[in-house]
Design goal:
Length: 364
């Protein structure tokens, strides 16, 4: 989620942001993937040395402090799955409960999510419009029923509602729903188009079987307790040929260093403890779960966050953040399903770096 072109500038900006703490940070470029070599070790040495010193002062920390240890953990730690058949993690609820009142502070803890709207909203809008012959001037998503899973304070629900969609936002944190309800009440149009429920995805399955045209789960799957149950429930509440949009974080060494050590421990871009590396989701794992639950992946594209400009753009590599668009099989395909899973082509497409509104073009 970091811009390679900002590496040199970041080396100068980080010390200022850290109030002249001497931590020379040289971040790697955007190129590379899950199997990229460790040539960036030298550039990250300053970060790791700084973090190592901090860890010595806090002996209770259990995070790995060297690339060798990270490599070992990467291949030995498996993603935990719940045996309760619920995707809700009680520890995650406690985390977000404490920040529920800060959702609409565009300069606060959720600043990166606010700026992510610059690329995820056009991605959703343009993908849906490319699949439909209907277009309503001024309200391009009119008539489309969207379920925003893990809606938080409504940061994504509101812009989708402004595009004309009928949006249902669900979140298991009651204070998040309270914040979202209060904010939408300031706009009479949104008050009619959006409804929020304090609920988990599993809790609405029975009442909402094949109800929604679109499901959005943005920055959610890396927080769930049971990803397989989560994907299964998405399939159950989505109409045949409906669309599922997911944005999340890949599980790589680079995502650990930049997403947790740098972003949380050193720069404070997001609150410390927001993410657990063990819960990050590799694209191949997500693809497998989607296919086994009747989805065909149409688009998969990397996302890049520039901490200096606070902006997002599309990139080819999925080594850090990435977005997925998948389509549920139609009614005919479901009734004629065989034991042989369908072949799915996943194409990765890049857009010009820095063009925040550009949508990655997949096969739809």
């Amino acid at each position: 989620m970091w811009g390679g072109g900002a590496a040199r500038a970041l080396g100068r900006a980080v010390p200022r942001a850290l109030r002249h703490r001497r931590a020379a940070v040289a971040l790697p470029g955007a190129a590379g993937d899950d199997h990229a070599d460790l040539s960036f070790q030298t550039g990250l040495r300053g970060v790791l040395q700084d973090y190592h010193r901090k860890r010595q002062l806090k002996s209770s920390s259990t995070l790995p402090v060297s690339l060798t240890e990270m490599k070992s953990n990467m291949f030995t730690v498996k993603r935990p799955f719940s045996t309760s058949h619920s995707s809700v993690d009680s520890k995650e609820i406690k985390k977000f409960q404490l920040l529920a009142h800060k959702w609409w502070d565009e300069e606060g803890e959720y600043a990166a999510l606010h700026s992510m709207n610059d690329i995820r909203v056009p991605f959703i809008r343009d993908t849906l419009l490319s699949m439909s012959s209907n277009y309503h001037l001024g309200n391009p998503l009119s008539g489309i029923k969207i379920l925003d899973v893990g809606c938080g304070g409504g940061l994504l629900s509101e812009p989708l509602g402004r595009l004309g969609a009928s949006v249902t936002g669900i979140d298991p944190v009651e204070d998040n729903i309270r914040t979202a309800d209060q904010h939408k009440s300031f706009d009479p149009v949104l008050a009619k188009r959006i409804q929020y429920k304090c609920s988990s995805l599993e809790e609405i399955v029975e009442e909402s079987m094949e109800t929604f045209d679109v499901i959005v789960a943005s920055e959610v799957v890396e927080h769930v307790a049971d990803l397989e149950t989560f994907i299964k429930c998405c399939s159950q509440v989505l109409k045949p040929e409906g669309s599922l949009f997911i944005t999340t974080i890949n599980k790589t060494q680079l995502s650990y260093v930049l997403g947790i050590v740098v972003a949380e421990k050193i720069m404070g871009i997001v609150p410390e403890g927001t993410h657990e590396w063990e819960k990050f989701v590799p694209p191949e794992e997500l693809e497998r779960l989607l296919e086994s639950n009747g989805f065909a992946v149409k688009t998969m594209s990397g996302m890049l966050y520039n901490p200096l400009s606070g902006s997002w753009s599309w990139m080819e590599s999925t080594g850090l953040n990435y977005a997925v668009h998948a389509v549920k099989a139609g009614a005919w395909a479901q009734s004629h399903a065989t034991d042989t899973p369908p072949e799915t082509d996943i194409q990765q497409h890049s857009a010009t770096a820095g063009t925040a509104g550009t949508v990655p073009h997949g096969t739809v």
